[in-house]
Design a protein that fits this description.
Largest sheet: 6 strands, mixed
Helix content: under 10%
Oligomer: single chain
Strand content: over 45%
Number of strands: 9
Radius of gyration: 18 Å
Mean pLDDT: 90
Length: about 110
């Protein structure tokens, strides 16, 4: 005879990071800092972002799992805006996940390129 025992418990952390994208500016052909604020109970998060012109995605960037300092004025992901992108207004959206795999809903803001 063989037996198997399993113990199921709730995940320790079920709360996603708190996230807010902030208006950002930059220059086409240069590194652009996509600004946002993030905090998480674990103290760590990984963020990624997309940049769009209307409904067309023109860029994406992903960060490393890093410290999510709730006292930071802002955090940023650096995206290199192609030189072929026209000056004007764009939208970027940021997502964040924590070490437990909880994902924050996306937060979007404006990006002005000159």
């Amino acid at each position: 005879p063989r037996s198997v025992t399993a113990l199921f418990a709730p995940l320790a952390d079920q709360v996603p990071p708190r996230l807010r994208a902030l208006p950002s500016t930059g220059v086409a052909g240069s590194p652009v800092r996509l600004r946002y604020r993030v905090s998480d109970d674990s103290g760590q998060s990984r963020e990624w972002a997309t940049v769009s012109a209307g409904s067309r995605r023109i860029g994406a960037v992903k960060g490393l799992l890093d410290v999510a300092d709730p006292d930071a004025l802002f955090n940023f992901l650096t995206w290199r805006a192609p030189a072929t992108v026209a000056p004007g207004g764009y939208t970027f959206c940021v997502w964040a996940s924590d070490p437990s795999g909880n994902v924050a809903p996306r937060s979007c803001s404006t990006l002005r390129l000159s």
